[in-house]
From TrEMBL:
This is Xanthine dehydrogenase. Keywords: 2Fe-2S, Iron, Iron-sulfur, Metal-binding, Oxidoreductase. InterPro entries: 2Fe-2S-bd, 2Fe-2S-bd_dom_sf, 2Fe-2S_ferredoxin-like_sf, 2Fe-2S_ferredoxin-type, 2Fe2S_fd_BS, Beta-grasp_dom_sf, Diverse_Oxidoreductases. Residues 1-77 form the 2Fe-2S ferredoxin-type domain.
């Protein structure tokens, strides 16, 4: 079947079997390997993507469910020259170790912050609760989300001054 959707801001049209999983389409067919498959059963969050701005697990979605949607993967959050504030904060706060969970964590955090501009630490914990990390102990990840939140709040004020 032909699937048409917006991927990281660009229109995409791809042929795929109806039963193909979204994660396989993204990684194997479209070469976006930032989205990781950890468990394949919706338990770890490593495969998180944003679908119309809402975090979804791509290992549990069929490619056909992408039809007509706006999809953001970790590759669409930012660039090396202009990273998303959560990407910068994760690095600056030392919130990555092995890095396997980081793309899913970053996508989930970006989606969470878009809908929760001033969360407290408990809200951040709850917002990230579907994403597992075996290395960091979560404190630095929560610190990074707080740091990104502050950067996102400061950015509009800086742009107005320019």
């Amino acid at each position: 079947m032909t699937i048409r959707f917006v991927l990281n801001g660009k229109p995409v049209e791809v042929e795929a079997p109806a039963e193909r999983r979204a994660i396989d389409l993204l990684r194997e067919d479209l070469g976006l390997i930032g989205t990781k498959e950890g468990c394949g059963g919706g338990e770890c969050g490593a495969c998180s993507i944003l679908v119309d701005g809402v975090t979804r697990l791509s290992c549990l979605m069929l490619a056909a469910q992408l039809q007509g949607r706006d999809i953001t993967t970790v590759e669409g959050l930012g660039t090396a020259e202009a990273p998303h504030p959560i990407q910068t904060a994760l690095a600056e706060c030392g919130a990555v170790q092995c890095g396997f969970c980081t793309p899913g964590m970053a996508v989930t955090a970006a989606g969470f912050l878009a809908g929760n501009p001033s969360p407290d630490r408990q809200a951040i914990r709850e917002g990230l609760s579907g994403n597992l990390c075996r290395c960091t102990g979560y404190q630095k990840i929560i610190d990074a989300v707080e740091s990104a939140e502050l950067a996102m709040q400061a950015k509009p004020a800086m742009q107005e001054d320019e």
